[in-house]
Amino acid sequence: MMRSFTYQALPMRVRFGAGAVRALPEEVAALGLSRVLVLCSPEQEETGRMVAGALGERSVGVLAEARMHVPVEVAGHARDVARELGADGCVAVGGGSAVGLGKAIALEHGLPVIAVPTTYAGSEMTPVWGLTEGGEKRTGRDVRVLPRSVVYDPELTLTLPAGLSATSGMNAIAHAVEGLYAPDATPIVSLMAEEGARALAGALPRVVADGTDLDARAEAQYGAWLCGAVLAATTMSLHHKLCHALGGTLDLPHAPTHTVVLPHALGFNQPAAPTAVAALSRALGGVADPARELWALAGRLGAPRSLRELGMARDDVPRIAAAAVASPYANPRPVTREGVEALLEAAWAGEPPP
Ligand code: NAD
């Protein structure tokens, strides 16, 4: 088939490497900022304070209130604090929750965000924001929320526990998988997806075996960067819709849900996505069945493989299937209610993908 595509690059500034966080003051100064507010989750307050300390007078404080899925109350308070302190930018240190809080402030006040990611979620690469109100998560795209600069320092990921490292890494691989069969896939983004999946699948077993292996941490974070860029550049399909429905309706944890669902969503789509299967097969070391391999990888990483162990009741399968087929979206294989129910049944029980 003749090639035909539209490629739109996003502005992206990345500083990568062990010790890169020491260059943060330079990044802040280069953006002309002198009063940044440091954002992090309560559990990472110490890291947030360390970063604020390194910024010295360029930081006006630390707000350690980031929460999963950015509740509107948390966003509202953070916007007030940013205004009261006269902040001219935010440095978000942490996972998708901290970066999401920075995006929520940027969306309303237009303050530039610098991201210092410490998980593999990939939000720092995307112009996608999310806000949760009354159990409903709204998302949107706005280039104002895309971080102006991203500092990846694998030393900051050394404390990420093995379980979270495994599931967060599988979450990142999911972006690559869906990017490879996306309706708006392009050659350069597919290269990033294949390389991102390769780097993560190779690094995660080493990270789980020894969380202090800085070389493995760097390789995993390099993969996470690529996978995040894929998420930003392509339209996600069945897998992300299912995880959104499971997270939004049942409040299942984000990264573990992605880990359980990914092999099944890929298994469902594989017959209709030969190019993606070929790329993933190369990325995963020449395997014949990438979906099975990802399921086996989750097992080797000691990660969850069933929705049951994440707290989902079997009775919830029809409700989630209905939510996942409620509105149409691009997917390589037609999404039917029966197909999704069968997929969810297998994922609930922890069976291997078809
Ligand atoms: P998270 O940011 O909530 O982090 C999970 C936990 O890990 C937190 O308790 C955090 O304090 C802790 N943690 C993070 N880094 C650590 C480290 N290095 N050492 C020790 N503990 C650490 O979760 P996440 O999985 O990174 O992000 C999930 C959220 O991000 C979800 O709300 C998801 O919807 C969102 N997200 C958004 C996008 C986007 O493009 N907008 C992309 C991916 C994820």
TrEMBL record:
**Which intervals hold domain Alcohol dehydrogenase iron-type/glycerol dehydrogenase GldA?**
11-154
Concerning CDD domains, the annotation shows:
MAR
Keywords assigned by UniProt? NAD, Oxidoreductase
Any GO molecular function? metal ion binding
Fe-containing alcohol dehydrogenase-like C-terminal domain: which residues?
166-348
Query: Transmembrane segments in this chain: where?
Result: none
Can you tell me which family this protein belongs to?
A: Belongs to the iron-containing alcohol dehydrogenase family.
Return the protein name: Maleylacetate reductase
